[in-house]
């Protein structure tokens, strides 16, 4: 008897439940080696490393697209021509050390003026490479394709035009199914920056977003990352198929998100729970106060009489 094919939700659950993929696959060792190389070269901030690598990858993809368009249309004017030719990928691969660092820095400062960029491209070509990272996934997903992307928290609530434009693009062109806030130390010792996991599917606009505030992942949030008992991941897996609400999870309609400049900051929408407190009737409280004051007066008079008798 053949088993039923796995649904996307069950595949996601199996992927999340797979134990220690990052550690057992050898990826961690490769990340360590890369970070050692970057650190030896003077780049000791992980976010700076991600920024420069993202730009190099983006430049390569942009150069390759430029070459394809030029081969298809003889009248096509290459983006990387004239004064922009020095930013083409072929020039970067010949550089090393300070020359490469300076070239990337110049590209970061200049490429928002690159000919042929759309308005969105000009907005995104800033130092906010995390926005480029997210937009790359949106652009390259096939129809009905699904992605899980981890981004810095600034992507969720950044007030710049670029950040707002990317969130609007995500919510109008994709079904953003979940925003899972992660604890700040989840990527230590590499970085302590706060992050969130976005799960989205391309092809239809978002109707509502499921938020989950994950406070513990089974490991300590210091550099040692030792195992601990607290772990919200099993609860995420249980609630994920039906996007259930609970103490750490809730749904937000797209109308409310649109009214808040497309902000995905979880704290802005988290329901405030209040518990009713039982109080005595006002007359009973006032009666207790009067009894207490009368007792204070009585004892005060007794003390005053004792002091008068000692004179």
Describe the model:
With 311 residues, this protein is of the alpha+beta class. Among the domains are: 92 residues, no CATH class; 125 residues, Rossmann fold (3-Layer(aba) Sandwich), CATH 3.40.50. The chain is built from 14 helices and seven strands. The strands form two sheets. The chain has a five-stranded mixed beta sheet. A two-stranded antiparallel sheet has the order 5-6. A hairpin with a 7-residue loop joins strand 5 and strand 6. Helix 4 packs across helix 8 and helix 8 runs parallel beside helix 10. The radius of gyration is 29 Å and the shape is elongated. The N and C termini lie far apart (106 Å). 17% of the residues are buried. The N terminus is likely disordered.
Q: Secondary-structure map with pairings?
A:
Blueprint: H1 8-17, H2 21-24, H3 27-40, H4 46-72, H5 89-92, H6 97-110, H7 119-124, H8 129-140, E1 146-152, H9 154-157, H10 161-173, E2 174-182, E3 195-202, E4 208-213, E5 217-219, E6 227-231, H11 233-239, E7 249-253, H12 254-259, H13 266-269, H14 282-310
Parallel strand pairs: 2-4
Antiparallel strand pairs: 1-3, 2-3, 4-7, 5-6
Helix pairs in contact: 4-8, 8-10
